[in-house]
Design brief:
Layout (H helix, E strand, L loop, with lengths): L10 H11 L3 E3 L7 E3 L1 H20 L3 E2 L5 E3 H4 L3 H5 L7 E5 L2 E9 L4 H11 L8 E10 L14 E11 L2 H22 L5 E4 L11 E9 L4 E12 L1 H6 L2 E3 L14 E3 L1 E8 L1 H10 L16 E5 L8 H20 L4 E3 L7 H10 L4 E5 L1 H6 L1 E6 L5 E5 L3 H26 L1 E3 L6 H6 L3 E6 L3 H10 L16 E6 L24 E6 L3
Parallel strand pairs: 3-7, 15-16, 15-17, 20-21
Antiparallel strand pairs: 1-2, 4-6, 5-6, 7-8, 8-14, 9-10, 9-22, 10-11, 11-14, 12-13, 17-18, 18-19, 21-23, 22-23
Helix pairs in contact: 2-6
The structure holds the ligand O=C1CCCN[C@@H]1CCCn1cnc2cc(F)c(Cl)cc2c1=O and magnesium ion.
Length: 510
């Protein structure tokens, strides 16, 4: 069944229908906020995993696995890390019919699970750097309206946790990982992202600073945090006593213990939210549009032009040709499939595979055999092109790469057009209402951010609808607008009478 609503008319229904009818996901009626990730979507997660995991292996990161349960005592060892999150922690309180002596939390993230062991394992600077990663699920009992992939109570992610001897080494890794997240989005999912650092209010409270890749959903005009790479500083090292002796300090004369140095730590994560972002950005009114590099079926080959007058041997010849084409493409590393179901018309099959986002369709019929060609049809823009049957293994990879590039460029152009540089406060909210995010000179003070959120969530004067959601800071982009340049001590903050430090990206967000 096709999609019954237009993407721009009813986005949330469109999103749900696309995910269900393309067989990416199934609703899990038993528990609100949980969903079944079906093979088409799970394959995308596996593509992301294999790309990211092979990249971090080259950085010397090792995969590991820690228990999903954490005691209340451990979880609460880091007060300000947990207090804001306490309402979303899921607890196991019973085993069978008997209450547990001490309830156990299901991991919402694994700092407090892992770091007592970091403390145990890291004794000397030779144990550094320690670089561990785990691919797992986490549970956060969010109360905001759940949305498949975007906000779910259980999600899959990877969480990297590293310990370094120097801040410089930690800083370098934070940015190396952030660059990998950019590649996951831009080179795999064809989704443009903006790199930047989070404000003091938006960063991970337990850390020193948070870097992020920020996405943009044009249909709603909202920003979305796409992945994060935190430098934790020495905060967790101090809390969990993760220390090494100072190798440079000579054992001093009284033979006292050499000075203990706290390690510098990072933690970084990307989640299955990335799948939802990709669907929201590339999908259209016919359904999914999959970027070729993560599509489990990249090319679908369909027999056409067969009529009741076509002889049996002619039909057989077409089908044999199609099977040969699929074999040839697969041996060239292209994921191709044939749809030879003889109880469906070509038109039905076109819709079936367009709904599932297959990047390229090849039509082959009796005439094509005669002309030794096939008609290719691109899913992203519908462009048709005749390809000689003896040029497939060169033309098809090129076409798939062109599809990726065009999908990315199209999304990037839209993102860039919806980032408005705003220099006067009166233009701020109208820009947000125009489904944009805004780039503004900003003082970077937390109280100012609170004020901006409040001022931009004003109640619409003409109706008593719920106030429009306020804007939050999304990031301070590493790439700053060249002009108008911010002159320290001269350029005013967009909102308060303080001076602007840098341009910050603000917007309504997920
Ligand atoms: O974002 C990442 C990447 C991967 C490893 N972790 C960090 C920080 C996670 C912050 N965070 C995020 N959400 C949380 C929810 C909770 F219920 C509790 Cl108790 C803690 C947290 C929490 O610390
Ligand atoms: Mg949260």
């Amino acid at each position: 069944m096709g999609i019954e609503v237009k993407k721009d008319a009813d986005f949330s229904t469109w999103y749900t229908q696309v995910l269900k009818r393309s067989e990416m996901l199934e609703y899990y009626e038993e528990v609100s906020g949980c969903y079944i990730i079906r093979p088409l979507a799970y394959n995308i997660w596996q593509e992301i995993q294999s790309f990211f995991d092979s990249a971090i292996k080259k950085m010397g990161v090792e995969d590991t696995y820690f228990p999903m349960f954490v005691s209340q005592r451990q979880l609460e060892r880091e007060k300000d890390h947990v207090e804001g999150f306490a309402p979303e922690v899921a607890w196991v309180t019973k085993a069978g019919s008997s209450d547990m002596e001490n309830p156990i939390a299901i991991r919402p993230t694994s700092e407090t699970v892992m770091y007592p062991y970091f403390s145990k394992w890291i004794r000397t600077h030779r144990d550094l750097p320690l670089k561990l990663n785990q691919w797992c699920n986490v549970v956060r009992w969010e109360f905001k309206k759940p949305q498949p992939f975007i906000r779910t109570r259980e999600f899959l992610w990877q969480e990297g946790h590293t310990a370094h001897f120097t801040k410089e080494e930690a800083d370098a890794e934070v940015h190396q990982i952030l660059e990998l997240y950019r590649q996951v989005y831009e080179d795999l999912l064809a989704v443009p992202v903006i790199k930047g650092v989070k404000s003091e209010k938006e960063k991970f409270a337990g850390g020193l600073y948070t870097t992020t890749v920020e996405g943009f959903i044009p249909t709603t005009g909202r920003g979305i945090q796409a992945a994060t790479s935190h430098c934790l500083g020495q905060n967790f090292a101090k809390m969990f006593d993760i220390v090494v002796e100072d190798p440079n300090a000579l054992a001093n004369s009284e033979g006292k213990e050499a000075k203990k140095l706290h390690v510098w730590q990072n933690s970084w994560g990307i989640t299955t939210r990335s799948i939802g972002v990709m669907v929201m950005i590339h999908g259209d009114d016919k359904g999914l549009v999959l970027p070729p590099r993560i599509a489990s079926v990249q090319v679908i080959v369909i027999p056409c032009g067969l009529t009741v007058r076509t002889s049996e041997e002619e039909k057989k010849r077409v089908e044999e040709k199609i099977n040969d084409v699929v074999k040839e493409l697969n041996s060239a590393g292209i994921k191709a499939k044939a749809d030879l179901r003889d109880n469906y018309t070509p038109g039905y099959k076109f819709n079936h595979w367009e709904l599932r986002g297959v990047p390229l369709r090849l039509e082959i019929g009796p005439r094509d055999l005669k002309n030794n060609q096939t008609l290719s049809v691109r899913r992203d823009n519908g462009v048709k092109e005749a390809i000689p049957l003896d040029k497939l293994t060169t033309c098809i990879p090129e076409t798939l790469n062109t599809i990726h590039k065009d999908m990315f460029e199209k999304a990037k152009k839209i993102y860039d057009e919806h980032v408005k540089v705003i220099l006067k406060w009166e233009d701020f909210v109208p820009a947000l209402d125009g489904k944009n995010v805004v780039l503004v000179p900003w003082c970077e003070q937390e109280h100012c951010e609170d004020k901006i959120k409040e001022k931009s969530s004003r109640r619409q004067p003409e109706d008593d609808k719920a106030p429009s959601m306020g804007a939050k800071s999304l990031c301070i982009p590493f790439e700053q607008p060249k002009e108008p340049a911010i002159v320290p001590g001269e350029t005013n903050c967009i909102s308060c009478d303080g001076f602007a430090k840098r341009y910050a990206l603000f917007g309504r967000s997920y």
